[in-house]
Amino acid sequence: MSNVTEQRVLRRAQAHASARSGILDAARRVAARGGARELSLRSVAAEAGFAPAALYGYFSGKDELLLALAADDLANLSRAMRETTSRTDGSRRLSSAASVAIDKMRDMDSLAAASGASQTAGSSDALRLFNGRLIAALKALSDAAGNPADTREAQCDAVLLGAAVAGLALLVRSGRLHALGFAPDEIVQRLERRFSSIS
User: Fold this and answer.
1) Which among 47, 40, 48 has a CA at the least distance from the CA of 65?
2) Per-residue pLDDT reduced to its tens digit, 10-60
3) Would the pLDDT of 66 be above 80?
4) pLDDT at 9
5) Domains 1-58 and 61-199 share a fold
6) Out of 1.10.1740, 3.40.50, 1.10.287, 1.10.10, which CATH number does the structure's domain 1-58 have?
7) Closest alpha carbon to 193 in 94, 55, 63, 85
8) How does pLDDT run across 69-124, given as a tens digit for each residue?
9) Where are the domains of the chain?
10) How is the chain classified by DSSP, letter by letter?
11) Distance of alpha carbon 35 from alpha carbon 28, whole angstroms
12) Could you say which architecture CATH assigns to the domain 61-199?
């Protein structure tokens, strides 16, 4: 392949990635107004300045778009947990990561919307990306607890911890945790005592 052809292919790939990113940003804005479950490809296309049919060049349908949106949110969540963990001393790493996760997930409904997406929705690449980002988020929590997920039992603990944090975020978001008479920090501290191997 000639240098000119390589540059042309690179420019096309960059333009495609940029447009895809713009579509995801538009989807995030639409979801913020009406909820991720309620977004439509037509509303996202209008927000992004595309013809509705043009979105199919980037996503096979709504389910794949939701998976991509949730995968991006999971990447941001993992990054935030790792950043806060790196700045926190050992004995509070899990509670720090869990608190950041709860705070971020409180405003994030893309995960719930993506969980409703069909397991056969979109491309296998979209599903692999989503699953990989989910594993990375679980690993960030597990690492914060000082429990490398290197055995089946440790991986099960990571899933339990992730489910507890996600459920706690849901209770906080809905106001139910407060109605039950609990504060998020109280529950997070109990999670730390039960799951953390760092003393």
Assistant:
1) 40
2) 888 898 889 999 999 999 999 989 888 888 999 999 999 999 899 999 998
3) yes
4) 87
5) no
6) 1.10.10
7) 94
8) 999 999 999 999 999 999 998 778 999 999 999 999 987 888 888 877 766 555 67
9) 1-58, 61-199
10) --HHHHHHHHHHHHHHHHHHHHHHHHHHHHHHHH-GGG--HHHHHHHHT--GGGGGGT-SSHHHHHHHHHHHHHHHHHHHHHHHHHTS-GGGHHHHHHHHHHHHHHT--HHHHHHTS-TTSS-HHHHHHHHHHHHHHHHHHHHHTT----SHHHHHHHHHHHHHHHHHHHHHHHTHHHHTT--HHHHHHHHHHHH----
11) 9
12) Orthogonal Bundle (1.10)
d(CA 184, CA 143): 21
Structure tokens at 45: 């296309």
Q: Which residues contact 102 (CB under 8 A, 6 or more apart)?
A: 165, 168, 169, 172, 184, 188
